[in-house]
Amino acid sequence: MKKWMMVLSTLVLAGTLLAACAPQTVVVTQAPVVQTVPGATQVVVVTAPPQPTPVPGRPNILRINLGPGDVPTLDPALATDTSSVQVVDELTVGLTRLNEVTLLLEPGMAESWTASADGRTYTFKIRQGIPWVRWNGTEVEQVKDCEGNVRTVTAYDFEYGILRTGNPKTASEYAYVLGFAIENFDAYNTGALTDTSKVGVKALDEATLVLTFTTPAVYNLNIAGMWVAHAQPRWIIEGDDCTEGRGERWTEPGFNQSYGPYVLKEWVHDSYLTIVKNPFWPGIESVPVAQIDEIKFTMLDASPAFTEYEAGNLDVAGVPIADIDRVKSDPVLSKELMIAPMGCTYYYGFNTTKPPVDNVHMRRALSLAIDRQGLIDTVLKGGQEPAQWFCRPGMAACPTPDKYPDLGVKYDPDKAKAELQAYMADMGFTSVDQIPELILMYNTSEGHKKIAEAIQDMWVKTLGIKVSVTNQEWKVYLKTIKSPDTPPVWRLGWCLDYPDANNWTREVFALGGSSNPDDNGDGVPDGGIFWKNDTFEQLVRDAAVEPDPAKRMDMYAQAEQILVWEDAAIAPIYWYTRVTCTKPYVIRTFSQHGHEALEKWSIQR
Predict the structure, then answer these.
(1) DSSP secondary structure, 429-442, as one string
(2) pLDDT level of residue 100 (50, 70, 90 thresholds)
(3) Which of 28, 111, 116, 306 would disulfide-bridge 121, Cβ 3.0–4.6 Å?
């Protein structure tokens, strides 16, 4: 996701998780979270007696909504958002796998690994005999090579996938995650290094892959499992003696080749996408054989999706903001409603080079004028928490409110007005009418629109400034906010890729991060927040390798204070919950990050 420029294309991507092995199913219980905010809960998995098998002849199909707008890509090297990663993670499997419920690291395509004495080099043993597959228009078939042999996933496919992600020609927006972690990967990604033998990835044989990291960070194994480091099929992308290379079209149905629990069947752009069970996936403990034969993803906004849910045409749907009160009071829907914690943060970014937010006092004024709790109580109504800073409490080394009650930014209208006066003094303005109109942009969504309009109203009433809101379709929006055309204020959500502060504070906002790109590697921001602070950069670099947990958390707390207050490059708004309705015949649990392990779900009628 969860950044993956880990953004949300909708307020709630409905979903949860089911524990692994048949014939057991799972039920949802609540238990205290380890190392998180006092009193918080998380969904855990416990085994339960076997459930009845599906009725013969009834379709075993799950219908679920991804949110408005087309899925941007199914290319692991190019995916940055939750919709894309949701599907990619069903089609392919990484070296390691983050358990979506416990957030513990589990083996994926690597059945085992060893580490060097200095903790920088890992040698992975790749599972053998797992075939590449495709949908041939009628059924799932195994892919064969030029000699007629079944192509199986090898260490060379992982080496190719990682290097392709880093190749400047691929233009992967998420390559920066590997650039922060893998030796010489950043130099390769920016074009400063062309010799791939110097990059810290090497397949020794079909079963052995070696990754060398820049530092012995505790999260390196998590990064090794991310989708940008998945195996990729060179022959269908570039071509070989018997296969025509499809280039960018390799992700389309018929051309797409994968090896995970599901296979791409249909993709009607801007309408729906269908995946089917891969009969050749052998199943492993962390990624079992799929229990649902087919999954259809729709691409609807929240309200029409929920209408389809109530009509019986969707099995899972996020609850629109406008319907939350009705759902809570409805005798049927209230039993199908689940509100659960989610490892995500909703925030507004500031283009610090564009007026009027090119002045820190204006940025502070805007953040201070957001009544976060009021927004939650009157608009969101889903038990979200006001965010004083960016990194979601509960992640390793993320600051917690009990230890840092005064960290970050809180609603304070009087202080907001004082900051506005400081801005006007800096600019020589004597009236708010002299302040340029503020543009706030969001990706097209009913939920984001309601939030933007509520915050627009807060800014107008508290500060007296002129504010206009505008929106763009998801795929266009993602490009806009990482370009020179980034508007003064824009929204995003971030969900964890792995549960560590490095994945939040550093990988999103350090120079070269997801929301602060440095495409040329020249030390100059190219989009997003257009921001650089040397003290911040040093803090997040040092925190990445600090062995003492308390010191490490304090470093991230200092970095967060710079990010959200001293420089006010962003305005954190709230920490997510997932507000979802699920039909009673869908057996599932809730994920803590931005996407689901749908292979663990089942339908029991």
Answers:
(1) -SSGGGSPPEEEEE
(2) very high
(3) 116
